[in-house]
Amino acid sequence: MPQLLLLLTIAAPFTATAVLSGLSHELLGEGLIWTNADGTPVTMCTVSLKNGSTVAQTCTMTEGFGPRSVGCYAVWSGARLLQQGCYSGQELSLRDQCRKGACVADDNNKNGAVLFCCCHGALCNENYARA
What predicted TM-score, i.e. pTM, was given to this entire model? Predict the structure, then answer.
C-alpha cells in the first residue's frame, strides 16, 4: 500500500498557484497596481531597511490559496516608524483593511500603542496617518 500512495503523490503533485482576485482586476483597471513581464501583479512600496533607512521597492504578488492581490503597509508607534513594506494576501483581508491611495490606520486602537495601515497604489505607504 505505501507504494501505491507514493505513486499517487507523484502522479498528482500539489501546487499552490496565485489566483488573480476581483480586487486585483479592479486595482489594475484603476492603475493602482500593474503587471510585470510574467503577467504577475506588482506594486511599488516604501520598504524599511535594517539600517533604519527606507527605499522604494517593486513588490510582487506571491502564490497562495484563494484569490490574491498585493499592497503596501506601515506600522508605527507615536512618532516612531517601526516598519514599512509590502505584502501579498488573500483578497478578503486586503479589501476589508486596505484603502486605495492612502495608508490610514483605523481609529479602533484607542490605546494608540502600535498602529497599522495598508493601502493600494504606488508608494502609498510613504506617508501614513491615523484616522
Answer: 0.80
At 64-104, the pLDDT tens digits run 777 788 999 999 998 899 999 998 888 877 888 899 999 99
Q: Which residues pair with 20 in a beta bridge?
A: 68
- What backbone torsions phi and psi does residue 52 show, to the nearest 5 degrees? 95, -10
Q: What does the alpha-carbon distance between residue 106 and residue 97 come to, in Å, rounded to a whole number?
A: 9
Instruction: Give 104-126 as a DSSP string.
Output: EE-TT-SS-SSEEEEEESTTTTS
**Cell 483605523, residue located:** 106
Q: What angle do CA 49, 54, 58 make, to 5 degrees?
A: 90
Q: Could you list the beta-strand ranges (E) of 2-127.
A: 19-20, 34-35, 41-48, 54-60, 67-77, 80-90, 99-100, 103-105, 115-120
| C-alpha cell at position 61 | 504578488
> How many other CB atoms sit within 10 Å of the CB of residue 15?
6
Give CA–CA dist 87/108, Å, rounded.
22
